[in-house]
Structures are given as structure tokens and as C-alpha cells.
Amino acid sequence: MATGMGRERMRRTNTRTLCAVGVSLAALMGASSALAQTAPAAPVAEEAAQDATVVDEIVVTGFRSSLQQALNIKRQEAGAVDAIFAEDMADFPDQNLAEAIQRLPGVTIERVNGQGTTISVRGLNSDFTRTRINGLEAQAASGGNRSRSFDFSMFASELFNSIKVRKTQSAEIEEGSLGATVDLQTGRPLDFSGSGFNSALSVQGSYNDLSEKTIPRLAGLLSWSNEDRTFGALLSVAYSERSPILGSFNTTRWQKGNPLDVNPVTGSPYGRGQNFGNCIPCTTTAQRDAVLNAFYPRIPRYTLGNTQEDRLGMTGSLQWRPSDRTEAVLDVLWSRANSELESPNIEAWSFSRAAVNSVVVRDYEIDADKNILSYGVFDNMLVRAENGFTRNESNFYQASLNVRHDFTDRLRGNLKIGANRSEARTPMNVAYAFEAAGVNGYSFDFREDDRKPTINYGFDVTSGQRFTLVNATRSTSGGNFDNQVGAGSLAYDWSDSLTFKVGGEYRTYGFETFGLTRTKTNPTGADRLTGVDSIGRVVDISGGVDAGAGSDLSFIVPDISKIADFLSFYDDPLVANRSEREVDETDKGIFLQADFNTTVAGMVLRGNAGIRYAQTEVTAKGWQTIATGTPPVTTYDYVTTENDYEDVLPSFNLALEPREDLVIRLGAAKVMSRPTLGDLTPGGSVSPTTRTVSYGNPLLDPFRATNYDFSVEWYFQNEGLLAGALFYKDIDSFITSETVGIPYNQLGLPNELLQGAASPTDIFQVTRRLNGAGGALKGIEIQYQQPFTFLPGLWSNFGFTGNVTWVDSEVSYGTAGKNRLTGQSKNTANATLYYEDGPFQARVSVAHRSQYLLSFPGSNGNSEEGVNDTTNIDASMSYEFTPNLTFSLEGINLTDAYTDRYVDVTDRVSDYRHTGREIAVGLRWKY
Fold first, then answer.
1. How far apart are CA 295 and CA 276, in angstroms?
2. Dihedral of alpha carbons 14, 17, 22, 25, sign
């Protein structure tokens, strides 16, 4: 088929790009052998060096050094842990934290606007993953994020020294994760060897081949410690910009009509529901029914989003270590991320509205495999030209104090207190639309390539003469996330092989949203304008999208600045839209754990076993819309609902070493993850007259599961690892939707909402979220890492690290049936081929993720919605001119991979988007 040919062309393009990367890398390595000289060892964090467990002492630097530190951590832990370390101070191996974490086995990322944002671990999406910064649980949100997920794009990677991903649970780790606990650690002054000053400064320029813009990236670190290394201070700063272009084709899903929906008077299905108004070439009932049964795109359009992003972050640390028995560290972190997006587009508006009843099909072709109109010519269309502008502003603040003290040789304690706040704001969001009615000759054609169709609008869309200003919207919104934590623990060495630990935490978590809006549909009077050239501008998006030949890619859209000056609408104040809601949680936990390290039959056996008790109290607030009477009169009430639950969570982890280079691990734990924030709101609607309720469910219990893990790790040489892991998660309950009859007084809503029109004992038909049936998730991870020191000559400078993960799941989605978890890819793989020879380093990395679900069931009659396979290729190299000065060159998304979002199992295109390649050139100085 033509579609397959289009994708084959893409595969050939990607192959050519990969070959070019490989040839360039080989040429650079050849040049490096002539320039090679012995490079000085990079400073290794003192704390990591003390923790390291190595078979034979070996000195490595750069990327190999960070890999070695990560293996040391993985090997010595009782549970399943993977780690990433900075190659040097303020020198993380990837520009984005999420993109660094995706190199670890079992970890995948979500990309937004071309960069990694949130992560999934072992098939469980970001809502099931806890993230801690300097030991303190954190919530980082940007833009319109209203979930529990952590947005890694909020932070520059240069601000952090290490990342640890804990995939198994122990009692001493706070509850809240079904997938993993991610620990982010910022730099501390006593991490660096020697007293006095340590400093680093890096400068980069990054070029995007789609936007054709070059933007800066700057980072600096200054650290000082006294001569005795008992006290130190550190400050780091990072600033970066991004300016990608978001070129895409999207459909906003597909929908179809229904030939059985007939007019009772005429007996015809034309003009009913989502049916077309007529089909000229349909001469038989069978042809008519086939057209009305076929899916058509709701809003087919090419778009080109112009973005501008900037991010500024700072960390500070004061570290006091008067003796080996006492240490206190005060860490502070601040990050600010701003983004602006303008998104002009032109689209067929009729298909997604009641106006489809007037659309006449003049010509068509049906793809029977996908049951879609793959080609069509239409009359009496509404064509809409839109433009919008959104500004997002996000801030994150955190301060934490960690104190460690050894009271005796056997008794020691830890104290942790701190708070963080994340503010996600959209201070400006405006959208405008022009509309042309009665358009004849509009056409789309998906037959050559179903991801890049040809679209023609049937008239001159660069002229504003046929358009009328029909819509203007402006709004502002935001959300706040607050965490306060106090925690403490004691550890007592009962013997050389047995340690008891006890401790607890008290945490408060707050979430609130707010919003104001103003919309003017079909403006009248001075605000209405037909012939919109004076308030529009012509855009040409042909340079940013790869569209079907002959598509209309130049068109007029509302001009953001001109239209704001034109509309008297801007003099009207914004009004509350009743989007306010709040969730307040108090989480209390205590634990008891025993750590052991002994010998059984000549084999080292170590691990831990413990139990954790957690109590959660929830107060949720939201607006209820109340309709009473006939005709109904609408009123509003702000509702408060409370809930509480408790969990007892046993866990154990065993690590057996049958020989010096082999570790066998076994782990099991009861785990829980609290409901997502959007599901907890009591906001919705109540109709006492019709006895119906629709709302979120503040009485939800958490997700609960039992996790089992088994792994074997073979450390066959220095920096070498071959490991395999099996994992199984028995999920007790999965949150789904239902509509059932329930007595009102069992809903947790106040009786005042009934307004005397119904009794609290009356049965109401309730549509809500609930704890439904669970399911199972299982998977396999395989990890391999090795420097090729066994090869001769130049080839001994190569090395490889990679992993593959297979995950499968089946959970119940209520009446929709069973399917795999949303966000879960069945297959993921990561591979990095690296080269290090004295001052020269180079590496190429590949990350692959197979198809995954976004929602099930899908909307508009589609069975599901998801994202197809993605593969991203990155490369980097550096050359150390002197021990203090290094040149770097990095290539990001070298194949300009598309994100391919689909609907239905037949793979109908939903959004096909790319953001361009980025090339970054930089210099790094350290002292």
C-alpha cells in the first residue's frame, strides 16, 4: 500500500542518518588516536567513593567513571536499584533528567514538545512513581499539570549529581509507589576532594534544524570547604532556552455516523446525529450505508506550534561535618520554567459539530481495512482558521535539613525536615477563530500516506474576505502543590551482622486549583467583523510540516496583537469558572526493619525485612452543580468531603552471593499508591429532581498491590555486568468509572445539596470513579554492560551498555473489559556504544519504546487511544584540550523521530508530530 511505502521511506531516511552518525564517530575516533594523551583522573565524589565496592581497583574517568559508580551502588544494595552519576561536578551525561533516566532498564519517558517530561517504571505510569529530592518527597508541576506525576523538565540536569531508581520496596522507604522511588541528589560541597575552592563553568549553543534558531545553555558551580573539610558551602546555577517548532498533522480523533438513525418522517438517515446531509455518488442503499458507517476525521489539520522556553535553576548547600559521627546538611533548590506557544492552524470544522448534518459528499473512497473515508470531496463546509497563544509559568522551591549523628558505636540516628512548593500558572491563554461557511470543494486524501494526507480547502484561504470573526476566549488558571515533611529514624547494631531500625514520618500535602475565563462566541456589534484582513496575518507552515503534495499550507489566521486591540471584549473582566478544587492530605507512617549481613554455607547473605504502617486522611473540596425544578434552575455549592484509610505494608529483600562475582536477589512487598488528584474531587453535578449524580470520588481507596522480584547479577569484570530480572505485580484494585444506583446518604455528599427535592435515602443513579477489579503485571529485564578492554588496539577503547525490558499486564476497566495498563509499553530497549581514549570521548545512544495506551476505551466509537513505537538516537563527543578546558559536541534526536499518536486498533492517525534535530556545541571549564 502507499502508506507502507511512505513509512519505508522514513525507515530508509533513519537508516541513512544512523549510518552518517556511525561514520562520523569512526572518523573522530581515528583522529583522536593521533591526539591522544593521558587525561588526569576526574574528581570522584568522596561519599560515593567510600560506598564503592569493587573487585579490583581500577581508575577510570569520564563516562566510564559514572558507569562504574552506578554498578558499585547497584551491587551493594539489598534491593533492586539502578543509578546514574554525573561524569564530573555539574556534568550530567544527558541534558535532560528524564532522558538520562530512560537509559536505565525498565524506565520509559513521555516526551512533550520534543523533550522528556515524566517517566514510567516497569509499565506503571508517572502517577505510580514517587520522586524525592535530597531525601524529601517532591511534586514538580508545569503548565496545566494536575496529577501526582513529577515533571523532570522543570530542572536542569547540571544541578544534580546522581539519580537512583529503587524498584523494590523496603520498610524504611516511605509508601506511595507501585512502580519505583526515584532519588535525585544535588551537589554538596564535601563531595569534592581537597579543601578550598572547586568550580565549573559550561557554555553551550544549541541549534534546532526545524526552527533554525540557536539558543544558549549556561551552567556554573562554585564550592568551598575549609582546610579541615569539616564545613563547606556550594552554589550552582543553570540557565537554558529551547525554541523547537511543533510541526504536526492531527485529526482530533475519528467518528462515524449511523445509517440506522433515520428521520421518522422521511425515513432517511441523512442529516441525523453524526450523519452527512447527503451523498451525491451514493446511488444504492448499500453505498449510502457504507459512507455513513465509515469513520471520518473530526478536525483534520496541519499545525505549526512556535514555542519559546526558558529555564533558570539554582541550588545551595551548607554542609557541616565536625567529626565522622555527626553531619548536618542544609539544601535549598529553586527552579523556574517559562514557556510560550503560538499555534496557528486551519481546519474543517463541520465534521466535529452539528454542521456535519449539512455537509454533502461529492466524491469518496473507503479504506475497508481501517473503515475510514480515505478520500473525500465535500460541499457546504464550515472552514475555521484559528490562532492561540499560551504562556505558562512554573516555580519550584525546596528547603531541606538532613542531620545524622552516631550516639554510640552501635546507636545512630537521622532527622529529616523540609518543605517544597510547586506553582503551575497559565497567566495568559487566548484563542481566536475566523470562520467561512458554505464552502464547496473541500477535500482530503489519505490514500498516498495516512500520516501525511493532502488537504485542500476549495477557496483562497490566504484572503480574509470570506472569513468572519466568530470566537474569542481568554483565561487564566493555576495550581499549587505543597509538601511539608518531618521524619526521623534510629538504627541499632545488635551485632556485627544484625541491625534494627525504627522510625516514622509526618507529612502534609496540599493541592489547589483556580481559574478565571471569558468567552465571546459569535461577537455582535463593534466586535463582529466580516472580511478579516485587517485583524489577520498570513502564515506559511510549509517549512515545518511534511504534508501531502498540493496541500494548502499558507493561510490567514487571527493576529494575536491586532485582534486584542480590536475587541472591546478585552475591557470585560474575567469571571470565575468554578474550576477551583482542593485536596488536603495528612500522611503518617511508622516502620520497623531489620538489616542483616551474614554467611550461610560459605555464601554471603544480606538483606532486610520489615513492616510499615501508614495512615492517610483526605479532605477534598470542589464545586457541585445542582439542577432542580422543571424547567431546571441551576445553582452551585462548594462541597467538602473527608476520607481516611490505613495500610499495613510488610516487605523483605534478600541478596545472596554464591561467589564473589554473583548476586542473586529476591524481594516481596505490599505496596500502595494514592489516587490521582483529578479523581478525588467531589466536584460535579447533582440533580435531585432526576435523582442523578456525576462527580469524582473523594472516598476512593488507594491502589494496592503485592510486588515480587527475582534477579541474578553477574559482575564478570571491572565495569562489566550481565543481569536478568523477573518481576510480578498483583494489583488488588484499579480505579475505573461506573454508573450505578446508590442511596444518596452513602455518597459522602452533604444533604444540603438535595434542597428538599429528594430524601437522603433515595436511590440516585451515580456516575463516578471507584475502586474496581485489579489485575496483574509481569515482566523481564535484561541488562548488559562491558568495556571492550579485551580487544586489541583502538577497539579496546570501546564499550557498551544496554538493556531490554518486556512487560505485559491485564487489568479490568469495568464495563469496557480488560486491557493492558495505560502508559505501559510491552517492549523497551536502550543501548549506548561509547569510546574513550585519553582526552577524547564519544558515544551514540538509542532508546526504543513500543506502542502504549493513552486511554481505554477510546472516544467517539474508537476502541482505544495510544502512541505507536518510537525510537530516538542521540550522540555526543568531547575533547579535553587541557585538564581544565573541554570542548563538546552533542546531537539530540538525530533522526528527527515523529511521535505517532493513534486511535482505534485499526491505527487511525490522531497526531503525527516532530520537533526537529538539535545540535549543541559547548565549552566547559573547571578548576
1. 12
2. negative
CA 699 to chain centre: 27
For 505-531, write each residue's pLDDT tens digit.
Answer: 999 999 988 888 877 777 777 778 889
Unique residue bearing C-alpha cell 580487544: 791
Measured CA distances, 263 to 273, 275, 367 (Å):
10, 11, 28
Environment class of 78 (CB within 10 Å of its CB; exposed 0-12, middle 13-18, buried 19+): buried
Identify whether the C-beta of residue 623 lies closer than 8 Å to the C-beta of residue 578.
yes
The SS3 call for residue 177 is coil
Grid cell locating 17:
542518518
CA 927, CA 922: separation in Å to the nearest integer?
Answer: 17
User: Residue 902's Cα: distance from chain center in Å?
Assistant: 18
Closest CA to 731 of 128, 110, 119: 128
Name residue 789's beta-bridge partners.
Answer: none
pLDDT digits (tens, 9 = 90+) for 285-296: 999 999 999 999
Cell 463582529 found at: 528
Residue 225 burial class via C-beta count within 10 angstroms: exposed 0-12, middle 13-18, buried 19 and up? buried
| Residue at 470: amino acid letter | V
* Average pLDDT of the chain to the nearest whole number: 87
CA distance readout (Å), 305 to 477, 666, 790: 21, 49, 50
Three-state DSSP class for residue 795: helix
Helix then strand then coil, % of the chain, to nearest 5: 15, 55, 30
Q: Rounded CA gap, 432 and 541, in Å?
A: 18
pLDDT tens readout for residues 871-909:
999 999 999 999 999 999 999 999 999 999 999 999 999
Residue 702 is classified by DSSP as P
Q: CA 401 to CA 114: how far, in whole Å?
A: 35
One-character DSSP codes across 392-419: EEEEEEEEEEEEEEESSSSEEEEEEEEE
Task: Point out which residues pair with 236 in neighbouring strands.
Answer: 221, 315
Does residue 332 have a pLDDT over 90?
Answer: yes
Cell of 537: 496575518
Length of the chain in terms of residues written: 927
Grid coordinates of 516:
478565571
DSSP string, 500-531: EEEEEEEEEEEEEEEEEEEEEES--GGG--BS
Q: HSE-up of 549 (CA within 13 Å, CB side)? A: 3
User: Is the alpha carbon torsion for 821, 695, 699, 758 positive or negative?
Assistant: negative
Q: Which three cell numbers stand for residue 799?
A: 564499550
Amino acid at site 742:
I
Residues 6+ apart with CB under 8 A from 509: 139, 481, 482, 483, 583, 584, 585, 586, 587
Q: Cell 490514500, residue? A: 447
The total of other beta-carbon atoms located within 10 Å of residue 280's CB is 12
**What value, to the nearest 5°, has the Cα angle with vertex 809 and ends 805 and 815?**
155
Longest dimension (CA), the chain: 95
- Report the C-alpha gap between 374 and 377 in whole angstroms: 11
Place of cell 521511506: 9
Count the neighbouring beta carbons within 10 Å of the beta carbon of residue 145. Answer: 23
Cα-Cα-Cα-Cα dihedral sign, residues 345, 351, 352, 354: positive
Helices (H) and strands (E) counted in the chain, each on its own, are: 7, 48
Looking at the domain covering 2-252+301-357+367-524+573-926, what would its CATH class be?
A: mainly beta
Distance CA 251, CA 139 (A): 33
**536-553: string of b/e by CB count within 10 Å (b at 16+)?**
bbebebeebbbbbeebbb
Compute the distance between CA of residue 330 and CA of residue 316 in angstroms, rounded to an integer.
8
List the grid coordinates of 784: 548488559
What's the pTM value of the predicted model, to 2 decimals? 0.86
Show the CA angle centred on residue 16, arms to residues 11 and 18, nearest 5°. Answer: 95
Query: Cα separation of 547 and 909, whole Å?
Result: 14
